[in-house]
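Quick question, first post here. What does this chain look like in 3D?
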Amino acid sequence: MSGKFRLSPQADRKLEEIWDYYHAQASTRLADQMLAAIYDAIELLLQFPTIGHFRPEITDKNLRFYRVKSFWLIYDPESEPLDIAYIYHAAQDVQSLLDDREK
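> Answer (accepted):
Ran it through. Tokens below.
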């Protein structure tokens, strides 16, 4: 990684869960590839933080959403270092998960 970023505790745990899941269900190679794709996307976000999109129907916070395979990277494009606030599977009800975190 050439730039600086910060993973929230939730995002850090989710990366571990993703690796564990793909390792158990498929292989070490696939687990490594999934994490590599996510880290490649973070590198892209560091270079172009506005490529994600706002989702005002989900949150009124200054967070952008960027999809990597079947996962959403949810991040603050104005933070320094870049804050990866959440990582969720695209099939999850992200709005409910974010609402629960705000309570």
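The mean pLDDT is 94.
The radius of gyration is 13 Å.
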